[in-house]
Amino acid sequence: MIKLKTFVTSAALALATAMPMTTITFAPAVAAANADDLNKDANNALQMLYRTNPAAQAIGKQAKAVLIFPNIVKAGLVFGGAYGEGVLERGGRPVDYFNSFAGSWGLQAGVQSYGYALFLMNDKAIDYLNKSQGWEIGVGPTVVVVNEGVAKNISSTTLKDDSYAFIFDQKGLMAGVSIEGTKISHIKR
């Protein structure tokens, strides 16, 4: 996985220097220095999401666990990759660590960063995450990506899916973010 981190970081730096007229600032590094840093970054990101999105806070109160990826960096020039590390929290406490990786190809050029939180609503979703050799979003438990339209219709009676994802804090030069096809895998911290 070190080679992947090196690739994404190198691609991000190469693209950023290739576009000197643009200033890009990213939040914390893609890979936190240690578990304490990752826990702090994840907690800060989740609190920011709750402050800026009441629907996320409402879902968070009912979720059995939350998987928070505070900083994903995506870089691409025809071929691209996105990588970040995250924390699984239960009852507001960190219980495990995961990474998020996505590869892509096609018409793309640029660098961006974003975060996302995956609210796991039932034991089925938590068990799948813990027992699978990597959860590819779009395969396995249902994941609903919450945008403004979906958020307006969320209530405690409409929360029927296995998990809900919120993408937040998007910065950079690439348009749009999708987590479809992202692979989430367990890591040691």
Describe it for me?
This protein has helices at residues 2-18, 35-52, 54-62, 123-131, 148-152, and strands at residues 65-90, 93-120, 135-136, 143-145, 163-172, 183-187. Strands 1, 2, 3, 4, 5 and 6 form a six-stranded mixed β-sheet that branches. Strand 1 and strand 2 form a beta hairpin. Helix content is 31%, strand content 39%. It has one domain (2-187). Residues 6-29 have low confidence and may be disordered. With 189 residues, it is α+β, with helices and mostly antiparallel strands.
Number of domains: 1
End-to-end C-alpha gap? 13 Å
Radius of gyration: 16 Å
Share of β-strand residues: 35-45%
- Main pleated-sheet profile: 6 strands, mixed
Structural class call reads alpha+beta
Report mean pLDDT, rounded to a whole number.
76
Oligomer: single chain
Q: In brief, what are we looking at here?
A:
With 189 residues, the chain is α+β, with helices and mostly antiparallel strands.
Set out the fold topology.
Layout: H1 2-18, H2 35-52, H3 54-62, E1 65-90, E2 93-120, H4 123-131, E3 135-136, E4 143-145, H5 148-152, E5 163-172, E6 183-187
Parallel strand pairs: 4-5
Antiparallel strand pairs: 1-2, 2-5, 2-6, 3-6
Helix pairs in contact: 2-3
Which characteristics define this entry?
single chain, 189 residues, alpha+beta, six-stranded mixed β-sheet, 5 helices, 39% strand, globular
